[in-house]
């Protein structure tokens, strides 16, 4: 596809500033070509002659739909089953046994922040179901899964995945928790679908107004898109949303500043609130 529209330096900075202020994503100058390619179709469909016209359209839209379409277009939403698998091993072997032993209310409060198309919360739901077995009926094991992208959440709610993407999961999980739809796709069983609550949520909200704090937060490969100030503020809010003794999992390419964070380092990309 030949791209006819070009973006000026001023137009790029306007869009980049808007995205950073509203969604935390820090777009650098070298991302100009990427932005043009991902937004070209929107400008074409709406007959905008320039990125300035598009920017004014976003600012004037009171419904917020234009901003949501923008973030849907530029979001990467790259994920896959068993990504950074040692996190899931640690969750299964250490975190769940600890919670099973110490949680008298028998309620798990787990948040998958930046859940994308659902592979992470689905994996967590499977591990929980496999861990508790018949005892699970006595527990509240719902998982909150949030993302800024409506498009990603729509895919996640359907729970339909390509069969080749499930190959990373143990064979008994594939057979037990997914039903074949056709030669190429499978769907998550209803029993597991009901365990995940999908919600749109912007991590740039000034405060996280959750009713109760979480024992486990997975916020992996999200902060790689943020600058240092935005990361520090997000980690502060995550800490406040974490229950005492609770865990935070981040991406392996990410790290918390141990001089500023109150979380205690456990292992690479795993921290705990004490």
Report on the structure:
This protein is of the alpha/beta class and 274 residues long. The protein has two domains: 9-74, Chemotaxis Receptor Methyltransferase Cher, domain 1 (Orthogonal Bundle), CATH 1.10.155; 85-272, Rossmann fold (3-Layer(aba) Sandwich). The protein is built from ten helices and ten strands. The strands form two sheets. A seven-stranded mixed beta sheet has the order 6-2-1-7-8-10-9. Strands 3-5-4 form a three-stranded antiparallel beta sheet. A hairpin with a 4-residue loop joins strand 4 (178-180) and strand 5 (185-188). The longest helix has 18 residues, at 85-102. The chain is globular and about 60 Å long. The termini are far apart. The mean pLDDT is 92.
Quick structural gist:
The chain is α/β, with parallel strands linked by helices and 274 residues long.
Counting helices, strands and paired strands, the structural category is alpha/beta
Beta strand count = 10
Count of alpha/pi helices: 10
Q: Which CATH class of the largest domain?
A: Alpha Beta
Shape: globular
Major sheet characteristics: 7 strands, mixed
Helical proportion? 40-55%
Strand content bin: 15-25%
Tally the structural domains.
2
User: What is the mean pLDDT?
Assistant: 92
Measured between the Cα atoms of the first and last residue, the distance is: 54 Å
CATH superfamily of the largest domain: Vaccinia Virus protein VP39
Radius of gyration: 20 Å
CATH architect. name of the largest domain? 3-Layer(aba) Sandwich
């Amino acid at each position: 596809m030949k791209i006819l529209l070009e973006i000026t330096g001023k137009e790029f900075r306007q869009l980049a500033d808007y995205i950073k202020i509203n969604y935390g994503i820090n777009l650098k100058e070298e991302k100009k070509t990427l932005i043009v390619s991902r937004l070209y179709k929107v400008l074409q469909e709406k007959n905008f002659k320039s990125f300035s016209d598009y920017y004014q359209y976003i600012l004037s839209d009171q419904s917020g739909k234009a901003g949501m379409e923008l973030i849907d277009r530029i979001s990467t939403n790259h994920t896959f089953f068993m990504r950074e698998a040692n996190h899931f091993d640690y969750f299964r072997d250490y975190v769940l046994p600890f919670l099973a032993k110490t949680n008298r209310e028998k309620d798990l409060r787990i948040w998958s922040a930046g859940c994308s198309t659902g592979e992470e919360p689905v994996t967590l739901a499977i591990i929980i179901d496999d861990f508790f077995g018949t005892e699970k009926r006595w527990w509240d094991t719902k998982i909150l899964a949030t993302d800024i992208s409506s498009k990603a959440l729509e895919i996640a709610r359907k729970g339909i995945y390509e069969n080749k993407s499930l190959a990373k999961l143990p064979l008994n999980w594939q057979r037990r928790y997914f039903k074949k739809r056709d030669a190429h796709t499978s769907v998550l069983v209803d029993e597991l679908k009901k365990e995940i609550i999908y919600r749109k949520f912007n991590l740039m909200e000034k405060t996280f107004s959750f009713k109760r704090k979480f024992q486990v937060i997975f916020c992996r490969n999200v902060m790689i898109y943020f600058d240092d100030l935005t990361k520090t503020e997000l980690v502060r809010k995550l800490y406040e949303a974490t229950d005492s003794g609770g865990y935070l999992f981040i991406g392996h390419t990410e790290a918390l500043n141990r001089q500023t964070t109150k979380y205690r380092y456990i292992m690479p990309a795993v921290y705990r609130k004490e």
